[in-house]
Amino acid sequence: MKITTKGRYAIHILYDLAQNKTGQPVPVKEIAERQEISVKYTEQIISILNKSGYVKSSRGFQGGYRLTKPLEEYVIGDILRLTEGSLAPVECLSAEENLCPKQHRCETILLWEKVDEAIRSVVDHVTLRDLLDWQTREAGEIAAR
Description:
The protein has 145 residues and is mainly alpha-helical.
């Protein structure tokens, strides 16, 4: 399984917005510049986030985007599923029900189920708040050196 730029950048965009302490909308151009993503691609990704209620847009001279809910409610697994689709390592685990004709005699299904479980155990238990806390802690440790 490989996370594409869309999934990674969606997390970077939300992280950028989470760092905005003013509560004011942040223009797409500023996010794109800080995250080193093209404005066009940033707009495409933020459109997905906006339609799904992760961000809210404001129009006008002071327009831009801001987060819509507490940082603890932005679960990384949910963001990745929104932008990437299934995070399952193999196709047969990506649907609600495994329809693979070999599922009952598959020698490797247990391996793939364990890989899937390991991925979910990380991404479904990390939030945007965790990412900010990790970065703050890291910055504090570096400053203390």
